[in-house]
Design a protein that fits this description.
single chain, 324 residues, alpha+beta, six-stranded mixed β-sheet, four-stranded mixed β-sheet, 10 helices, globular
Length: 324
C-alpha cells in the first residue's frame, strides 16, 4: 500500500495535470475562471456518488472515476449541452492509498481526452465514512435551447436511446446473479453498470426536436414520471416496445416480470424524451449513431402507465430507485 501524500501534494502531483484549461491555473488558486461563450447559456449539473449506493467497494478505481464523470455528462447530454469543464470533490477514507488515487485520476484523464473537457478545481477531504465523490459539470447550449423536463404535450411520442435495464442486470451480476451466464454477456452488462455512455451527440441533435428530456438514472418509469409531473401530462409506455438487449434477455428472460424489472432498474443513463416528429427524431439518431426507440405516447392526464401486449396496465409496485 502506497502512503497518501498531504492534501496539497496530492493536488499538485495527481490532479493538477488534469487541470489543462488556462482558467484552472493549475489548481493553484481558490477558484477557476470559465470563459463566457457568446450566444450561449451555461448549463450546470452535479451528482454525488457514495460507495455502497452508487458503486461497489471493489469496483476498479478508474471505472469509479469514469462513472462519476459520465453520470454528469449524461445530465448535460439530456439538456442538449456541450461539456466545458468540471469540479471534483473527494472524501477519502483512510484505506484509500496513493495507488488507488492514481488509478482513479488515470480514469478521469482518459475520459477528459475522450470527451474533451478539463478539471477546473474542487476539494479533497478525509472522511471516517464511505468513499464519497461529487462532480459538478458545466456545459454550454445555444441561448434558450436547453431541453427541459417540462414541455411534453399530448400527441408527442415517447422515446428512449439505447437499451433499458442493462445496468440493473450488471448490478445483479455483481451481487451474485447469473452464475451460468456467458462471459461476453456478463462483461456487457457489468460494463453498462460500471461505465455508462453519455449520449452527448444525440442530446445536441435533439435541440429544437425534443419537447422534454432527462437521463435515465433512477429507472425508466421513475424518470418518465418526472417529465409527466412537471409537464402536467400522462405518459403511456408499451412494455413490448421497450428496447431490451440480448444479454439482458439471457440473464432475466423476456417475461412481463423481467421487462418490469428492467423498466424500474436504475443507472442506464440513456436519454428518455418526448417529441412531436418521429422523422426528426430518427434523423437525429441516425446522425448521432445512437439507436432510439419509440416507446409510447403522451396523453392528457397524469402519471406514467406501463401497458402489456394486450393494452392492460401493468401494476408497478416500485417505479425505480429512491434515496429516501
Amino acid at each position: 500500500m502506497a502512503d497518501r501524500p498531504s492534501e496539497f501534494a496530492l493536488i499538485a502531483e495527481v490532479f493538477a495535470p488534469l487541470a489543462t484549461a488556462p482558467g484552472a491555473f493549475g489548481l493553484t488558486d481558490d477558484a477557476a475562471v470559465l470563459p463566457a461563450r457568446a450566444g450561449c447559456d451555461l448549463v450546470v449539473t452535479t451528482d454525488v456518488l457514495v460507495e455502497g449506493v452508487h458503486f461497489l467497494a471493489d469496483d476498479p478505481p478508474d471505472s469509479i472515476a469514469k462513472k462519476a464523470l459520465r453520470v454528469n455528462l449524461s445530465d448535460l447530454a439530456a439538456k442538449g449541452a456541450e461539456p466545458a469543464g468540471y469540479l471534483l470533490a473527494l472524501s477519502l477514507p483512510e484505506r484509500i492509498d496513493l495507488n488507488w488515487i492514481e488509478d482513479f485520476a488515470r480514469g478521469l484523464g482518459d475520459d477528459q481526452t475522450a470527451f474533451d473537457l478539463p478539471l477546473l478545481g474542487g476539494d479533497t477531504t478525509a472522511t471516517p465514512g464511505p468513499l464519497t465523490l461529487a462532480i459538478t459539470a458545466m456545459g454550454y447550449v445555444p441561448a434558450g435551447k436547453m431541453i427541459r423536463r417540462a414541455g411534453a404535450m399530448p400527441g408527442d411520442g415517447v422515446f428512449v436511446s439505447g437499451t433499458v435495464g442493462d445496468a440493473g442486470g450488471g448490478l445483479a451480476i455483481l451481487k451474485g446473479e447469473g452464475a451460468a451466464l456467458g462471459a461476453s454477456e456478463r462483461a456487457q452488462l457489468t460494463g453498462r453498470y460500471r461505465v455508462p455512455t453519455p449520449r452527448l451527440a444525440l442530446g445536441q441533435g435533439l435541440r429544437g426536436i425534443a419537447s422534454a428530456a432527462l437521463d435515465v438514472s433512477d429507472g425508466l418509469i421513475a424518470d418518465l414520471a418526472h417529465i409527466a409531473e412537471v409537464s402536467g401530462v400522462r405518459i403511456v409506455v408499451e412494455a413490448e416496445r421497450m428496447p431490451y438487449s440480448a444479454a439482458l434477455r439471457a440473464l432475466w428472460g423476456d417475461t412481463p416480470k423481467a421487462r418490469l424489472r428492467a423498466a424500474t432498474s436504475g443507472d442506464d443513463y440513456e436519454i428518455a424524451f418526448t417529441a412531436r416528429s418521429d422523422n426528426a427524431v430518427l434523423e437525429a439518431a441516425r446522425h448521432a449513431g445512437v439507436p432510439v426507440t419509440r416507446l409510447g405516447r403522451v396523453e392528457a392526464g397524469s402519471g406514467v402507465a406501463l401497458l402489456d401486449s394486450g393494452g392492460r396496465e401493468i401494476t408497478v409496485p416500485r417505479a425505480g430507485f429512491t434515496h429516501f
